[in-house]
Task: structure prediction
Amino acid sequence: MLQKTSNRFNAQDLWQKDHDHFLHPYTHFDSFKKEGSLVLAEGEGCYVTDVSGKRYFDGIAGMWCVNVGYGRREIAEVMAEQALTLCYTTTFVDVSNAPAAELASKLAELAPGSLNHVAFATSGSCAVDTAIRLAHYYQSRRGEPDRRFIISRKNSYHGSTYLGMSVGRRDGDQSPHFRYVPDLVHHLSAPYPYRRPEGMSLEAFSDFLVEEFRAKIEELGAENIAAFIAEPAQASGGVTIPPPRYLERMRDLCTKNGILFIADEIVTAFGRLGHFFASKDEFGIIPDIIVAAKGLTSGYIPLSATIYSDEIHEVISAPDPDAWFTHGYTYSGHPVACAVGVKNIEIIEREDLCANAAKVGDYLEKRLATLADLPIVGDVRGRRLMMCLEYVKDKRTREKLSDEVNISKRISNECEANGLLVRPLGHLDILSPPLTMTMAEVDFIVETLGKAIRKATDELSREGAL
Result:
């Protein structure tokens, strides 16, 4: 039996080692030097425990990813068994392994339309890179090598590689100290209904966005555009649900102009919106390519997938003795990771976690909506287990609070003190809990978050920030 967390770790020693040696993703050095990290040690169900023994409800499922919850013994056992059976094999050219074949077949079964082919990698970022290289390869193999441009959207996030950061476009990601791929990617307006132009209806906003895409195609020339990439619901860009029929119309424009539609479902796939894949079941479209990660293994081990159509495969696999798809990774189709993916999907299906996500997610939407009346809550939005609160200084004008207020972190700190982890992001707090969450846990989230917002509002009033 495991010892209690507080007895197994020297909390201060670990905090110091982390502080002194670990460069975290998205480090803000000034604050990190002062505060360091919350060092976690254990997880069970929807809860994590830090090295001091304090327990938290994980309202963000790690990073959108621990869909089946923490501490699944059967996943750990499959991982260990596969590591003992066959810990690794290359999958370059013509070598494979049983878990990779099984998982590829299962993903083909679950994916919509004719998306029957899979390339594996270890991260969502690498899956996006694969999708874009695949789009270029496909367009060239079908005789249109000039189709190089990628169309993306502002406020999007498509990974942290050199290419992924160039394709995504969130304000906070574009550091002046980095460089990005020039001239390859063109960005359209984000489908951000809350921040649409004053007085514009949702239907008119959808018209505006589609017309902007049409104009961009005319400007660049369809013959020069390889693909359009979009998160069905923008995740880290603010959990924005697009206006009515927007995705369907964007898909139609892609089809008419020979442009591949890449759906970035790294967050939305594997149950977060109540479906294995959200593109068709939630938004009514069948993309040419879907990229997925996170919930594919529920974060137990790194794995991602780029799933593409029969139509693409027929072109890229057509006879040509000089044609090689010179792309892939050392760990593509890693047997341990793929075995975990198979077991993870089995659990989601066996426990009907998509249905639970739909039921509990609908309740989360309803309960969070009650916080919309609070003075600094400008918008409560999202879908099911992918939700967001946006804070403002003035609800009528949607004016943001100053950055110095650090509103989302102020609120998330108060939630953390009361046993709830939410994700602060600028003027937003984001929720993406495990699919196993209960109605009672929804109530805890909303009550804890509501108290934290009220406390922050009182503090801002006293400070004269409102």
Observations:
- DSSP finds 16 helices and 15 strands in the chain.
- Residues 5-68+353-463 form a domain with the Aspartate Aminotransferase, domain 1 fold (CATH 3.90.1150.10).
